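Predict the 3D structure for this chain.
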Amino acid sequence: MLGPWAAYRALTPQPRPGGTDIRLCHLVYDVPPGADPEGLARARGAAVHCAVTGTGDHPWGTLPYTLHKPENTS
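Done. Predicted structure below.
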């Protein structure tokens, strides 16, 4: 899955193509503060996810919220 947060939230969980042996990665952008992309990705069967705040032509130019947390910096 690749798309904006609003579309990601509207998606219903779907069966995994290839069964449970396939690892899914979800890439979501335009994620608002306070959202729970990790919980939603887990509920949709994604083993890996990346959720960023960015929008527009290049939303991936921003860091995920988890990298903005003070406890993640040294």
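The CA atoms of residues 11 and 33 lie 20 Å apart.
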